[in-house]
């Protein structure tokens, strides 16, 4: 027993059971990650009991997690048939980007109004630097991770909880489509330039200019993504 404890392990007999809320959160994160990683792709169906067995959990926390994911429009709940992972259509994607663009432009304005210093904006510049390094190494997965770090950091700097929650409500569906299309699009060389232009406007305290740079950035990305639907005749991602 002491050897196990020395290695950071615990015996099940000593482990306290997690409260239902914590189990539901754990189930939510596990299911959500499988959907985002396309391990459970659009159109995937499973009964609630099958999901519970796959996760090694009871049905109660799994049910709560599925209800939450349904509210976020990642899945549909079908009576007596369990869950269905929802696709993202061109219309969905256009509407999601319209919402994200509007909300992120507000975030950019809020940050600029604070007159941030170079030090304040380090998370943005570091994420952009990492994007450049990833492209130099042809590592698109690292590029995508750094790109998302940039946009999350922008929300953090805005320091508006309700705004961040509104953005994150649509984030997962946009993420799925972006990752699906990552290797179908041209090499994303424009994003780093656009990010640096946004950082410059933030550093100037130019709220209107920051919103304008962010809008142009998001609208270009939206056009490229919607072009993938058209080019490959995709009904959904």
List its salient traits:
single chain, 237 residues, mainly alpha, Arc Repressor Mutant, subunit A, Four Helix Bundle (Hemerythrin (Met), subunit A), 3-stranded antiparallel beta sheet, 10 helices, 3 strands, 68% helix, globular, disordered N terminus
Helix content: 55-70%
Q: CATH homologous superfamily of the largest domain, by name?
A: GntR ligand-binding domain-like
Q: Would you state the CATH class of the largest domain?
A: Mainly Alpha
Radius of gyration: 21 Å
Describe this entry's structure for a reader.
This protein is mainly α. It folds into 2 domains: 2-85, Arc Repressor Mutant, subunit A (Orthogonal Bundle), CATH 1.10.10.10; 90-231, Up-down Bundle (Four Helix Bundle (Hemerythrin (Met), subunit A)). The chain is 68% helix and 4% strand. The protein has helices at residues 2-6, 20-36, 48-55, 59-71, 90-113, 122-136, 140-158, 161-181, 190-203, 207-231; strands at 45-46, 75-78, 82-85. The chain has a 3-stranded antiparallel β-sheet. Helix 2 (20-36) crosses helix 4 (59-71), helix 5 packs across helix 7 and helix 5 packs across helix 8 (161-181). The protein is globular and about 55 Å long.
Would you spell out the secondary-structure blueprint of this structure?
Layout: H1 2-6, H2 20-36, E1 45-46, H3 48-55, H4 59-71, E2 75-78, E3 82-85, H5 90-113, H6 122-136, H7 140-158, H8 161-181, H9 190-203, H10 207-231
Antiparallel strand pairs: 1-3, 2-3
Helix pairs in contact: 2-4, 3-4, 5-7, 5-8, 5-9, 5-10, 6-7, 6-9, 9-10
